[in-house]
Design brief:
Blueprint (H helix, E strand, L loop, with lengths): L10 E5 L12 H12 L5 E4 L11 H18 L3 E4 L5 H13 L4 E4 L9 H15 L4 E4 L10 H10 L3 E5 L5 H11 L3 E3 L5 H6 L4 E3 L1 H5 L1 H13 L1 H18 L1 H5 L4 H12 L20 H11 L7
Parallel strand pairs: 1-2, 1-8, 2-3, 3-4, 4-5, 5-6, 6-7
Helix pairs in contact: 1-2, 3-4, 4-5, 5-6, 9-10, 10-13, 12-13
Length: about 300
């Protein structure tokens, strides 16, 4: 697939989630069907091996097989795709980056080394090394709030100057000052923010989302993104109702100690657009099944726009 540029990384991207059998093995038939549903949903791209894809809980053979399934289907459909090359261990990360690059995704997403926080020089050095491993495939930095090392606009601008193949970043967003600094210092990069905050992000200069709202409803997330350009006030109203849904049904699970992958699988099960299931890889805890139906009822009541017929 053609390497992406920063200007190509826009809109709503859907993630591949791992459907698991009772023995914890990946159900490859269900995973392939899920990818096909994402491809038909209208999303601007698909990616694998983000946090929601449990990249930290799969072995190298599973990593390669997910890559093969996604690459084959996206190439046939002509839809851009990205692969995460991340792992908590830096040598494994480099191996994953090289093998992901071999299937020619549009970009490779990476996290920073995750056990010991990095100083600024180490951040720049790591991204340069990751870019060398990726060869002609560009990089996207995934720097969520739970990362050990947080990259601000100034450091991001320095890293981008040192590594021209860095084309984008996924971050938690921020206030108006953060968006202004990002626009001034890192404006040549694609800036992606959380899906449930995308209307606010777009209004302040963000470019899209690797979207948890797409985990709930891929088609609905696409329709909402389109609304942001035609009816920004209405899109902000949808965002407020997403926040209400999350406060009622996601925040209590998060407060009970469930991880972000558990929450994303819960959202996909609530949305009922693919046979994903709520189960995570051992030893992680999963969302309780009895939480799904109340959340589904509220999702359809609060957000009918996200569930087009």
């Amino acid at each position: 697939m053609k390497a992406l540029r920063a200007v190509d990384v826009r809109g709503v991207w859907g993630t591949v989630l791992l459907p698991l059998g009772g023995d914890g093995a990946i159900d490859w038939t269900r995973l392939a069907a899920q990818v096909d549903t994402l491809l038909a949903s209208g999303v601007d791209g698909v990616y694998a091996h983000g946090t929601a894809g449990e990249f930290h809980a799969i072995d190298e053979g599973e990593f390669d097989r997910v890559n093969e399934i996604l690459a084959t289907r996206c190439e046939a459909a002509g839809l851009p795709f990205q692969l995460g090359g991340s792992h908590p261990a830096t040598p494994v990360t480099m191996g994953r980056i090289r093998r992901a690059a071999a299937v020619e995704p549009g970009a490779i997403q990476v996290i920073l080394p995750d056990w010991v926080p990095l100083n600024d020089d180490e951040v720049v050095r790591f991204l340069a090394g990751a870019a060398e491993a990726a060869g002609p495939v560009p990089l996207v930095l995934y720097n969520p709030p739970h990362a050990k090392t947080h990259v601000g606009p100034e450091l991001l601008a320095r890293a981008a100057a040192a590594t021209p193949s860095l084309i984008g970043v996924k971050m938690a967003g921020g206030d108006e000052h953060w968006y202004a600094a990002m626009t001034e210092l890192a404006g040549d990069l694609s800036i992606f923010v959380p899906g449930h905050l995308l209307a606010t992000g777009i209004a302040h200069g963000a470019h899209g989302s690797y979207s948890n709202v797409a985990a709930l409803s891929p088609r609905g997330a696409v329709a909402w993104y389109r609304q942001m350009t035609t009816d920004p006030g209405g899109a902000l109203d949808v965002e407020a109702r997403i926040a209400e849904l999350f406060a009622r049904h996601v925040a209590p699970l998060q407060a009970a100690g469930l991880s972000n992958p558990a929450l994303d699988k819960f959202l996909a099960t609530v949305g009922d657009w693919a046979d994903v299931g709520t189960t995570l890889r051992w030893p992680a805890s999963s969302a309780p099944d009895d939480a799904v139906e109340p959340a589904r009822a509220d999702a359809h009541r609060l957000l009918p726009e996200l569930f087009p017929a």
